[in-house]
Write a structure and sequence with these properties.
Blueprint: E1 4-5, H1 11-20, H2 27-37, H3 51-60, E2 61-62, E3 66-73, E4 79-85, E5 90-98, E6 101-105, E7 109-110, E8 128-129, H4 132-148, E9 155-160, H5 170-181, E10 193-197, H6 201-209, E11 215-219, H7 225-231, H8 240-254, E12 258-264, H9 272-282, E13 289-295, H10 310-322, E14 327-329, H11 343-355
Parallel strand pairs: 1-2, 6-9, 9-10, 10-11, 11-12, 12-13, 13-14
Antiparallel strand pairs: 3-4, 4-5, 5-6, 7-8
Helix pairs in contact: 1-2, 4-5, 6-8, 9-10
């Protein structure tokens, strides 16, 4: 029987599991305290558990299903981790330092099937979904890295924007959010967590109904169907006629602001014409909208795209601002390392193939 990661279980799931295996329900709080507060590295360190409880945990779970492969550190403090999973697959996790704390960008799938034409994550198609524990362990590994520095630093924010489409791995992503948000564990505030989707409209309805305070970001990248379909093939399945009603439902249900991600591609979607179209698209929801303009990180395999000129970015920004759209230009991190999401993983796989 293959053992699961102990980090796969929410607090309630762990309580149920322990009872089913002849243990007391209160043991769940003890186990979570060891895992998330004391952050031990083995079940044997949980000294206030009886031997039977430790034994049954060891028989059914592992604590480490991720292995460090590569760590790249940027001059601005950004750290990109490449982890190897038990099946040999590789994933990326990124730690970023901001004035408000430490934010971690996590991956939810091995590869990606969304197929955005500018994205390094989609260079390798989806192999499988990550289990809940494999997503949680990314946070735990980064937190333990911070612990070793001895400065009482902690992960304060999470963005679910790494490799893969979180809403294509919906159930595991939701359990991950419950685990990291739970006050018994890491207690990372829901409003400090953002989930990004490329636009799976049906799952946006589900997410709105979850009644979480977690933030939502939508990768829009174009203000009309023709252009969006060219750069994001998912728009064929979820064109703006399906996507924007899902946005409206989310806003009405939650009354929470949504962030629209807009990556600027030189001479593709960065003209004033597209900026005006974007204003029109968002005009009836501008009070709960924020547009995050993203300078493009070039990817060798997508050489049809270049980064927009600074003046084009500024002009686009000004059009939005003058028309009452809340917006900003993303501050870049890790530009001196493999900055684009999926880039480090893709390069490592190429190297491994060349060695074979």
């Amino acid at each position: 029987m293959k053992k699961r990661s102990i980090y796969s279980l929410t607090f309630d799931q762990l309580k149920e599991w322990l009872v089913e295996h002849g243990q007391k329900k209160f043991r769940a709080k003890q186990v979570w305290n060891w895992l998330y507060k004391k952050r031990v590295n083995s079940f044997d360190e949980m000294y206030n558990l009886n031997k039977d409880c430790i034994l049954v945990l060891k028989e059914n779970f592992v604590m480490h299903s991720l292995q460090h492969e590569i760590k790249q550190e940027s001059q601005d403090g950004t750290i990109k981790f490449l982890f190897k999973l038990e099946d040999g697959n590789l994933i990326e996790t990124v730690l970023m330092k901001f004035s408000y704390g430490f934010s971690v960008c996590v991956t939810t799938q091995v590869g990606c099937n969304i197929g955005c034409s500018f994205c390094a994550s989609g260079l390798l198609t989806k192999n499988r979904d990550l289990a809940t524990g494999e997503i949680v362990e990314q946070i735990m590994n980064v937190q333990k890295h911070l612990d070793k520095r001895g400065n009482d630093e902690r992960v304060s924010h999470i963005v679910v924007m790494g490799i893969g489409e979180p809403f294509d791995n919906y159930d595991n992503t939701m359990d991950f959010l419950k685990v990291v948000n739970d006050q018994q564990g890491l207690s990372i505030g829901a409003r400090h967590i953002t989930v990004s989707t490329s636009g799976l409209a049906h799952r946006m309805y589900d997410f709105a109904d979850e009644n979480m305070q977690v933030n939502l970001a939508l990768s829009l990248h174009a203000p009309n169907n023709e252009l969006r379909t060219k750069i994001m093939k998912i728009n064929k399945a979820f064109p703006l006629e399906k996507l924007m009603p899902a946005v409206d439902y989310y806003l009405e249900k939650t009354n929470r602001r949504i962030t629209f991600e807009y990556i600027l591609l030189k001479d593709v979607n960065d003209h004033k014409e597209e900026a005006i179209q974007l204003v029109e698209l968002l005009k009836d929801k501008k009070h709960l909208s924020y547009v995050n303009l993203i300078p493009y990180n070039p990817v060798d395999e997508h050489n049809q795209y270049d980064r927009s000129e600074k003046q084009a970015i500024l002009d686009f920004y000004q059009v939005l601002l003058e028309n009452g759209i809340n917006c900003g230009v993303r501050v870049e991190h890790g530009t001196d390392i493999d900055a684009a999401c999926g880039q480090l993983r893709s390069k490592q796989i190429k190297k491994d193939k060349q060695k074979a």
